[in-house]
Amino acid sequence: MTLEEFALDLDCCEELMRSMESCQNYRNELLACKPSRSITKIVCFGLGTLSHVDPFWRTRSLLQTAMVIVIMEVLGHKLKKTAAGGGGAIPVPCFSQDPAYSDLDKEFLASRGITVLEDPKGFLEVDENTLVIALAPAAPVRQVIADLQWPGAMIARVVEEGSEMVLETEMVDGVEHPL
Ligand SMILES: C[S@@+](CC[C@H](N)C(=O)[O-])C[C@H]1O[C@@H](n2cnc3c(N)ncnc32)[C@H](O)[C@@H]1O
Fold it and tell me: In this protein, which residues make up the domain named SRR1-like (predicted)?
């Protein structure tokens, strides 16, 4: 795969995501909500590799990454509203941890404002002003975060036992890779 192919596929998923009524409703709810603490950072776990050979898993990861980009944009607008002096949306730092990311994933995600962190550095980025996004990570993310530092907010989905969400993986040199 190439960076150009990644860009085409992610743009397509982003367009699809933005056209969905559920995404527009979610966007409006996020814009309207007044959290007790401002959210100034996003840390994601287990979004999956965009280089996956299986189109099912690849599309899921592309859609979840597109969703993160929409959330980054909304939070940037919210920060702008609260900042003095106006100006454009304030870029919200976004980090993502998944041991399955390839070098190409890392380069591409960086071009979209998402910095890939090696395990366990994602956990160390979480603070009280962080939105954690953990979508079916094959790791006990909520438990680790509960032990280390409670985030400002969390969007999480767990892997349900017996569901088709369970991705088979293999360990290579201590790193988990999807099969
Ligand atoms: C079941 S897949 C879910 C992928 C995608 N979020 C989805 O819903 O299709 C689990 C993912 O968690 C990742 N993972 C495993 N260990 C992890 C860790 N320590 N931190 C973050 N992600 C991890 C795997 O590499 C894999 O991409």
Answer: 34-148
φ, ψ for residue 117, nearest 5 deg: -115, 145
Task: Give how far Cα 116 sits from Cα of 21, 27, 63, 94, Å.
Answer: 30, 24, 17, 9
Helix (H, G, I), strand (E, B) or coil at 129: coil
Is 98 a pocket residue for ligand 1 (Cβ < 6 Å)?
yes
Flag whether pLDDT at 123 surpasses 70: yes
Q: What is the pLDDT of residues 50-80, one digit of tens each?
A: 999 999 999 999 999 999 999 999 999 988 8
Asked if 89 and 78 count as a contact pair (C-beta separation under 8 A), the reply is no
- Minimum-distance ligand 1 atom for the alpha carbon of 60: 9
pTM above 0.85, yes or no: yes
Pocket lining: 61 vs ligand 1, CB cutoff 6 Å:
yes
